[in-house]
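Dear support,

I submitted the protein below through the web form. The confirmation email said the job was done, but the results page showed an empty box. After a refresh the structure appeared. I'm attaching both so you can tell me whether what I see now is the final result or a partial one.
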Amino acid sequence: MINKPLLFKFTFLLAVIVVSYLVFSKPSYPQNIPGMDKVGHVGSFFGLTLLAYFAFRPRWYLVFIATACYGALIEVVQSYLPYRSADYHDFIADMCGVVLFYLLLFLSRLCYKTWNRSSR
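What the results page shows now:
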């Protein structure tokens, strides 16, 4: 039988490695749509937060602190890479991904409670 928390922990670790590779490697793709990289930041940090939630079930503020540190670290490292640039808008997009996950989690729990009350 598959140990789900262990699977989520492995997937989380893999996601951190992939995201780190993508943000530190030299981009080999054209940026045809302005701001599209911000969508990638929101999506990446939404996914990392989702995986962290299911892997560790941490308190929301611990995830927020950890992802804020990771997002800030990414921008600091990118400021030293000649083929990348640091942008505080990227950090804001990262945090929007985290907030979006917790907002959707809250709303899904609220809907679940509402539906359970109405079915009685």
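Response: this is the final, complete result; the empty box was a page-load delay. The chain has one domain: 4-23+36-118.
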